[in-house]
Amino acid sequence: MSVGKSDLRKALRSVRFTVWIYFAIFIVAILVLIWISFIATLETNYRSRKENDIELVSSRIITSAVNGSLTSRQIEDLAHEYDMCIILQDRYGLTIYSYDVTSNHCLIHGSSESDLRSYRQSADSAADGVYYAELLNPRYGDDTLLYVKSIGGRGAIRYLMINTSLEPLDSTVGVIRVQMIQITVAMLILGFGISIFLSRLISTPITRITKSAAKLGQGDYNVEFNGNGYTETEQLAETLNFASCEITKIDTMRRDLMANISHDLRTPLTMVKAYAEMIRDLSGDDPVKRDEHLGIIIEESDRLAALVNDILDLTKLENGGSELSLTDFDLSERINSIMARYSLLSERDGYKFYVSVPEGSMVTADPIKFDQVIYNLVNNAVNYSGESRDIYVTAVPVSDGMEIAVTDTGPGISKELLPLIFDRYYRAEKSKREVIGTGLGLSIVKQILIMHGFEFGVRSEENVGSTFWFRTKNRS
Ligand code: ADP
Known about the structure:
The protein is 57% helix and 17% strand. The protein is an alpha+beta fold. The protein folds into three domains: 68-169, Beta-Lactamase (2-Layer Sandwich), CATH 3.30.450; 231-315, Signal transduction histidine kinase, dimerisation/phosphotransfer (DHp) domain (Helix Hairpins, Orthogonal Bundle), CATH 1.10.287.130; 323-471, Heat Shock Protein 90. Helix 2 runs antiparallel to helix 6 and helix 7 (231-281) runs antiparallel to helix 8. The mean pLDDT is 84.
């Protein structure tokens, strides 16, 4: 029951139904307007035209009568032209002249003398001498307009009676009404059809996109959004295609990360377990061997800790759970103290670090996060420095801050991969396990630099090397 109700509610709120209902309302409103304006005004317009005609005929007859030029021909012509019966009477109510276009069918011809007398009296007693009335002609059942004018003066003609039928109006209205009903029905059917067609046309691409989105929701990332038809739906489809492409990318990266992380976690864990067992079974009593094995266990635990920290750091940065605490500090002091920790690497593994930072230059940043950026960039340079093992850390003043760059002379990064390396989980050398990494280092760098509002980027040439740079901004 409730399912049926919600289905009905959904159907009523659909684009299809909404378009249809508005269209239907529009058509009905137009029809109602036409009906009202036509039918309501037709009757009054027609009646006032008839009244004008009567006034005109009356004034012509009276003028001619006063001039003494009134002829029976003139009266007949006027009666024909305006479709009227005309009677002229003297002061005693005797008819001087009478003409009836309807061959004695009009109201005043059929009226009794007492009726005519009462009309005359009404005209006599009216201030302007005119008696006007809409009367029913009982013989034909049609409405008529009666005009009786009491003419003053001494002329022979005292009363002018004009009577005209309003029946032509009724028949016209009848014809129009039938036509209007036909037009209304035709417009409703046509409008119904057009609105259904229109609503289908509009809703089809939306329905198609919704179906594709449902597939995407079920994990089918190859789905193609097609908004063919309208600019808006095409834009929507384009946006969704872009989104699905991004989701696919992230999904692939996430899978890669799972593979990488599980591998990277398993390797040190296996080592820790193996060396712990070795200490228990073999080297426990041999202090030299035991220390060596414990050293390996500590090293592997550090790797594990670094991996877990990277994941936590990035999650925190991305979720906005990390606040910046900005401080002004001396750049050369900061970089030199970081680089001092790489002295073991340079002594033991032959890495050469060339640091060139102008002394006394101040920058504004969160020092701990700044260290993290430098560490990540230098670690990458170490990891990917190649045979030459030369690494340059430089800083030069730029317009409103310092440009800091970490350069290596390693294999470089191909043009296609350059836009991807700042993405989460991205690792170019998936199969190369000797370089321990999570694919998160540069994402952390990116997040930190974005938080600071620093510009950053990478220049790289294959087989020449890469330079990762960022620009600090002075406090404004
Ligand atoms: P990882 O932990 O894998 O180093 P990063 O986010 O730090 O993760 O780096 C992402 C990828 O970018 C690396 O896997 C590597 O392919 C590439 N990359 C980063 N730094 C360099 C570099 N200095 N030279 C060449 N490639 C690099």
